[in-house]
Amino acid sequence: MAATRKRTRRGIEDVSDRKAKVIKSSGEKRHIAALILARGGSKGIPLKNIKMLAGVPLIGWVLRAAVDSKQFDSVWVSTDHDDIEKVAKAWGAQVHRRSPEVSKDSSSSLDTIQEFARLNPEVDVICHIQATSPCLHPFHLKEALEMITKQGFTSVFSVVRRHHFRWQEVKKGGSVATQPLNLDPSNRPRRQDWDGELCENGSFYFSTRALIEEGVLQGGKWAYYEMLPEYSVDIDVDIDWPVAEQRVLRFGYFGLDKPEVVRLLLCNVSGCLTDGRVLISVSGEEMVSVNTRDTMGIRMLQRERVEVILISSSEDLLTKALADNLSQRTGCEVRQLGKDIQGEVKAMMDDKDLDWKEVAYMGNDAPDVDCLNLAGLSAVPRDAPVVAINAAKYSCHSAAGLGAVREFSEHILLLKKKAKSQMEQDRIHRNTF
Fold it and tell me: Which of these is catalytic: 118, 162, 188, 329?
């Protein structure tokens, strides 16, 4: 018997004679898992899923949203590649090492999701999140999941509303004709007179285990979750990357901590402000090269009342003359730290009555990992070792001594501006309503 349909607040409810399978009783909590598929053999863009987008591995954007949503009992990445596995774990995910059978070019997403479900029988609801949707926010996932847990839907998927007039190519014999698909050319509607069409944007698909075992991601009692166009970014080919990067800088999710509270930047001299080389003259004088773009970045922060302190470790000792010259050129205090970098930074923060969320940290190697992890914002230059890149919240496109500090400074200021704009909108909303 054909299914009947009725319109719901957000989508279409499919009501058929066949009853949906009940996994657990209504009084028992279901295990809800987020699952991101990230195969290593991407044909369009090699290792696309861990390519840096606005300083963050592509997969990191959706992992951060999933983890920070606090809606999932477990967050997983399904992959067949060692480097993707390392990045996934660094961003808080568990890893499902998919089998060769579901790692082929011909393998579908459903094949991999079904394998994951078989290997994890405790999971009742799976949210398939696509790594190529970097503007996903925690509130999207929370609101969509509530349609499963509170409204009783068995599948919920994300859509975006488009106002595109579509045409179809029709081949008849040896000739080709064109005909409209969703409009009457003699009576073209104005945009404001047309609701548009709902198109899947690929951000996420919530499905119950019962549906997945039946071989579908959408079925039973289904509904759509509508996302605004600014959040609907999908990266497919390399040409999409610059556009997506600009979009994610404006509309992406940057974490729970609000960046406008950053009051202090701690920046390593060697390997961040400089390229790590120390030049020695014939007379024995030590010299380093400092890029004017980086010093300008420091002054941009200082104008916005962000204190900048340059730090040097015991392994990269600066002569007093060199430290004095750097201080004079940048307008920053230069501090020499010992082997316990985290302890000395914490003492410095206590003196200034600061929390970690108020500190931005720029490091470049293993000794900086703890501070990179703890700081509200953290960054490394492009040429930093992997151990530091995995700990940082932002990875610069620029190398050490060649504009990395300027890039991180602009990133800090962009986030501060974005946060202030949001605060202003919230204030207007409170005053209006």
Answer: 188
Q: Where are the beta strands (DSSP E) in 241-373?
A: 264-268, 279-280, 286-287, 307-312, 333-336, 359-362
| Nearest residue to 23 via CA among 117, 125, 120, 107 | 125
Residues of the chain with pLDDT under 50: 1-23, 25, 426-433
pTM above 0.85, yes or no: no
Burial 315-343 (b: 16+ CB within 10 A, else e): ebebeeebbebbeeebebebeebeeebee
Structure confidence at residue 8 (pLDDT): 39
CB 375 within 8 A of CB 362: no
Rounded to whole angstroms, the Cα distance separating 123 from 35 reads 11
DSSP 3-state of 24: coil
Which three-class secondary structure string do you get for 369-403?
A: HHHHHHCCEEEECCCCCHHHHHHCCEECCCCCCCC
pLDDT of residue 268: 92
Residue 96 amino acid letter:
H
What number of other Cβ atoms are within 10 A of residue 100's Cβ? Answer: 8
Question: Which is it for strands 74-79 and 94-97: parallel, antiparallel or unpaired?
Answer: parallel
Q: What is the C-alpha to C-alpha distance for residues 404 and 376, in angstroms, rounded to an integer?
A: 18
pLDDT score recorded for residue 18? 36
Q: Judge contact between 230 and 248, C-beta under 8 A.
A: no
188 is annotated as an active-site residue: yes
